[in-house]
Amino acid sequence: MVQINLPQNSKVEKGKYFKDKTGSKNIRKVNIYRWDPSTGKNPRIDTYEVDMDNCPSKVLDLLNKIKNEIDPSIAYRRSCAHGVCGSCAMNMDGKNGLACTKPHAEIKGDINIYPLPHLKVSKDLIGDLSTLYKQYESVEPWLKTTSKTEKENIQSKEDRAKLDGLYECIMCACCSTSCPSYWWNGDKYLGPAVLLQAYRWIIDSRDEDRKERLKKVADELKLYRCHTIMNCTNACPKGLNPAKAIASIKKMLATS
Amino acid sequence: MKENNPLSPHIQIYNWHVSSLVSISHRITGILNYFLLIFICIWAGSIFFGEDAYDIFKLFLNSLFGKFFVIGFIWSYLFQILSEIRHWFWDVGLGFELKTSKITGVLVIFGSFLLTILIYSSRGFL
Fold first, then answer.
1. Where are the alpha helices (H) located in chain B, listed in sequence order?
2. Which of A65, A161, A196, B103 has the fewest C-beta atoms under 10 angstroms from its C-beta?
3. Which residue of A has its CA nearest to B100?
4. What is the pLDDT of residues A58-115, one digit of tens each?
5. Is A37 exposed, middle or buried (0-12, 13-18, 19+ CB in 10 A)?
6. Domains and CATH numbers, chain A
7. Global pTM?
C-alpha cells in the first residue's frame, strides 16, 4: 500500500544541538536521525558541529568521531570499514550507501544521515532487516542438485563469467530500501537485493533447479512489482545492477 | 520487533533522479491518457448529437484553458510513447547501464517537450 506520510509515532522532531567545543574554524553541521527505544518519544534529528580539520575522509569516520568525542549514545552498525561487510549501509544526503566508502566531501551543505528508508527502526541508525533476510532465505540461496556424481561439478569459464556482477553483492540492503516498490509492498515484493540473488542462482550452470526457481519467482507481487525505477542501480555501493538482473529474470520467463 | 518502533523516513528524504522522475511521470501520464481517451470518444460522439453539441467542444477547445488542455494532452501522450519506447528497450535487456538510462531519461523528458512544440506549432499546416 502506498502511504506517503509517516505514521504518527514516526514523525521526526527537532532534537538537541551539540555546539562545537574545539574552537575549530572548519566546522560542518551533521544532522543525525535519533530514536531511543527506552523513552517512548518520537524520533528526532540531533545536530552536531564537527571539527573537520581533524576528521578522516569518510562518513563512517565522521560518525566514529561524533561517537568518540561528542555523543557516545549514538548507535549504528559497522564492522569492516572497507565496503566489504555491508553493515554500515545508511541514507546519507538523501541517497543510500555505505558510510565507510562515502566521502563526506562529496556532500554539499549540511550532512544529513538517516537509517535505511522504510524500515522499522531498532535504535538510531539501525533498521530492522529481518523481513529481507526471510525473503533471502525464501529464494534458497544455495546450489541444488539432484544428479549424483562422484566427479567434481565443473563450471566453464564462460559460465563462471555469467556470475560476474552478481556474486559481488554484499547484501547491504541499500538497493532494496531505496526502491519505492519495496517501500509500498515490501512484505510481498522480494525487492532488488533478493531478486539479484535469485538470478544469481538461476543463472548458475551448476544448479539443477532452474525451472523450479523461475516458477517460484514468477509472481505478480514477488517479481513484477519492479517498474524499473532504477533507484536500486543508482544506490548500489558496489556498482552492481539489480535492475538489469530483474529484467533478465523477466526476459527468461518471457522467452522460456 | 515491537509495534511502536517508528518507520524510518523514506520518500520524504530520498533524492530524486532522472529515472525515478520519468518513472512516476510515466504512471501519471498513463492515468491522464486514460481519461483523455475517454474525452476524445465523447468529443467524437458529440458529432452524432448535431452541430450544437459539437460547438460546445469547439468553444471549449478554442478557449485559453482549452488550448492549455490540448497542449497538455499532446505532451502527456508523447511522454507516454517515448517512455514506453524506453521500456521496450529495457524489456529486451538493453539500456540498463546507469549512464545510458540517465541519457535516455533526459531524452524522454526533452523529447516530449520538443515534439509537443513541433506538433502544436505545425497545426496550421495540417
1. 18-46, 51-62, 64-91, 98-121
2. A161
3. A230
4. 999 999 999 999 999 999 999 999 999 999 999 999 999 999 999 999 999 999 999 9
5. middle
6. 8-127 (3.10.20.30), 130-146+154-255 (1.10.1060.10)
7. 0.93
